[in-house]
Amino acid sequence: MFRIISLPPFKAVASEVDKEFDFSSTGKLGIFDAFFSTITPKPHESFMPRDFLYYDEQQEGMVWIWALTESGETGGFDTLDFEGGYYLTFDYRDGDDEARDKLYQEALHYIEQSAIFALDIRKNHYSMGHIITPPDIIKAQGWAQMEAFIPVRLFE
Q1: Domain assignment of residue 59, given as a range
Q2: How far apart are the C-alpha atoms of 33 and 20, rounded to whole Å?
Q3: Are 138 and 126 in contact (CB under 8 A)?
Q4: Which of 13, 31, 119, 150 has the fewest other C-beta atoms within 10 Å?
Q5: 66: pLDDT confidence band, cut at 50, 70 and 90?
Q6: Is the CB of residue 10 less than 8 Å from the CB of residue 84?
Q7: Are 53 and 63 in contact (CB under 8 A)?
Q8: Is the pLDDT of residue 48 over 80?
Q9: Which pLDDT value is given to residue 46?
Q10: What is the number of other CB atoms lying within 10 angstroms of the CB of residue 154?
C-alpha cells in the first residue's frame, strides 16, 4: 500500500550537484552530510523528514537538500525554495536496489492507473529519498530503512 502525503514549501540549503555519487568524507555529498549532521534543530523545528536526496535529471547528478532551521545556518552552501506538494511514498531496506526498483515500478503503475493522480516530475521537483531509521537503531540493527517520495499532482 502506498500513502500520499503533503510536504510544505520551505527554504532549503543544498549540496552541489554530485555526478560521482560520493558520500565519502571528502565527496560533495559527504561534506554536505557532515554540515547538516552538526545542526540540532529546536524541538518545534524537529519535523521529519528534514533532508531529502534526489537525482537532478537536468544536471545529471545527486543533490541533497536540508530544510533550514530558524538559525538560517547555511554552512556556505547555496539555498533554494522547495515548492512542496503531494508525494506518493513507499519504504524499503536501504541498498536493496531490487526491492526499490520493484516498488518504484508498482508506484508508477498505481499513479498511471489512478483516476485522480498524475506524475509531477519537473525541474527541481524530482523523486526523492530519505533515511527514516533513527541513527541509534541503524547502529543496533546494522541497516537503515529508506522512504521514497514520488511527486504527484491531482488531475485538473
Answers
A1: 3-154
A2: 15
A3: no
A4: 119
A5: very high
A6: yes
A7: yes
A8: no
A9: 73
A10: 11
Q: Provide the grid cell at 138.
A: 541503524
Is 90 exceeded by the pLDDT of residue 65?
Answer: yes
Alpha-carbon separation of residue 32 from 39, 53, 146 (angstroms): 12, 11, 19
The answer to whether 68 and 145 are in contact (CB under 8 A) is: no
**Statement: residue 53 has pLDDT above 90:** yes
Q: On the CB side of 127, how many CA atoms lie within 13 Å of its CA?
A: 14
Number of domains in the chain: 1
Any residues with CB less than 8 A from the CB of 52 and at least 6 apart, and which?
64, 65, 128, 129, 130, 149
DSSP state of 70: T
- CATH assignment of the domain containing 126: 3.20.80.10
